[in-house]
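U., I forgot to send this yesterday:
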Amino acid sequence: MAIYILISVVILITCVLLVLVVLVQNSKGGGLASNFSSSNQFMGVRKTADFLEKSTWTLAIILLVLALFSSFVIPKYQGETKVQESEIQKQINESKTQPIKDFQAPPSQKK
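Result:
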């Protein structure tokens, strides 16, 4: 159960980061890269766009892997079904042991 909660939290963090990275990008290749127009910058315009694209793909792959892994660690609640089965079994057993009371024959059909 703890691993499922941990995976769920990591999935949520990955989703938020993915949304932020996608919102920073411009659909035509500008985005954050277009804001860096000076010539003395640390990363060039092209490198910023490459970084955003690589981070988008990386986060998308991480999200996919975590979603697939979470399907294997989903807790399976069997306690509730056993209780329901035992209640049904109890009713079946009671109906077998109790005689049928107040049984009336169906009315005869005369023409």
